[in-house]
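A student in our group prepared the protein record below, which I am reviewing. Here is the record exactly as it was handed to me.
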Amino acid sequence: MPTIPRGHCSVETPGWYSGTSSDRKEEDDLRIGIILAFAFGGLALLAGCGNQGDKASSVPVTPKWKGAPYRIAFDAQTAKPNPAGVTIPAIKFTANPEMLEKRAILVLRFDASADTKKGPMMNQMIMAPVDIAGTEGTLPPDYMNSADKDLTTFLKAYCINGKVKISVALARSSLTRQAGDAEIDAKRLSDWQPLEVVFKNPHPKC
């Protein structure tokens, strides 16, 4: 008998069978069954791999950050009353790491329908720029103290007393002091945060 070289597949040569035709038929059926089992098994594996790939490619990629570059919130702790007459709570910020700014401006908007004795009042106040470092922090106390004093001066000028509804937002430091709504919206870094403050006017009947 010839020696089969190693590393090569052996192929069974056809031979003659002395058994009955039924034995031959059973053997043929067995071979066909094995061939079909391998064939369908391979198709199932291929189909499974394809489905997994489709599922992986169909999963949406969730953005790391949504909305404005900065998010602001008022400190939940009760702020110490400012002798100036009005107190804005401390403002905390969280920033998108990919859209950090070195400086920003605090913008305040007022309820234009407030009851004044000096006629229609301006509806906004724009502060000076302030440093904002890192991805999170709080606007400096000195800066917020200046905001309280400026707001007090503003409310006094219009003889306002009692509760006042305002909204605050951060804007880019390039915002001009006389900016209109369009410029503010274009350079705004955060959404507006509403707030109601109480102003105790020392001269309520001015």
